[in-house]
């Protein structure tokens, strides 16, 4: 598993902005990218998350512990 796989990435439509907005709540406060399609926004978000993790590791920084899990309850129910 790659480090980026531990972090939840969310893409949501914003009526206010009339576009999709990408979020990674464990690494960033607020939205980090936007786009006209859900797919392009998610792809850009994944790239940003990978770059951020790589940058932090290259600087010798520790990564924040992933805390946001959308499937936490679903994983428990499936067991």
Characterize the structure shown.
The chain has 79 residues and is an alpha+beta fold. It has one domain. 35% of the residues lie in helices and 19% in strands. The protein has helices spanning 38-58, 72-78, and strands spanning 10-14, 19-23, 31-35. A three-stranded antiparallel sheet has the order 1-2-3, covered by helices on one side. The longest helix has 21 residues, at 38-58.
The value of Rg in angstroms is 14 Å
Q: What structural class do you assign from the helix and strand content?
A: alpha+beta
Give me the number of helical elements. Answer: 2
The largest β sheet comes out as: 3 strands, antiparallel
**Any idea what the shape is?**
elongated
Helix content: 25-40%
Number of beta-strand segments: 3
Overall pLDDT score: 89
Order of secondary-structure elements = EEEHH
From the N-terminal CA to the C-terminal CA, the straight-line distance is 21 Å
Number of domains: 1
Strand proportion: 15-25%
Could you list the spans in which at least 5 consecutive residues all have pLDDT below 50?
73-79
How are the strands of the biggest sheet laid out side by side? 1-2-3
Please write out the topology.
Elements: E1 10-14, E2 19-23, E3 31-35, H1 38-58, H2 72-78
Antiparallel strand pairs: 1-2, 2-3
List keywords for this structure.
79 residues, alpha+beta, 2 helices, disordered C terminus
Short description:
The protein has 79 residues and is an alpha+beta fold. The protein has two helices and three strands, in the order βββαα.
């Amino acid at each position: 598993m790659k480090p980026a796989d531990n972090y939840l990435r969310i893409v949501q439509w914003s009526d206010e902005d009339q576009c999709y907005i990408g979020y990674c709540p464990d690494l960033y406060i607020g939205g980090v990218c936007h786009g006209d399609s859900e797919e392009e926004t998610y792809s850009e978000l994944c790239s940003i998350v990978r770059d951020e993790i790589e940058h932090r590791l290259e600087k010798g920084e520790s990564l924040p512990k992933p805390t946001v899990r959308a499937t936490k309850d679903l994983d428990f129910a499936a067991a």
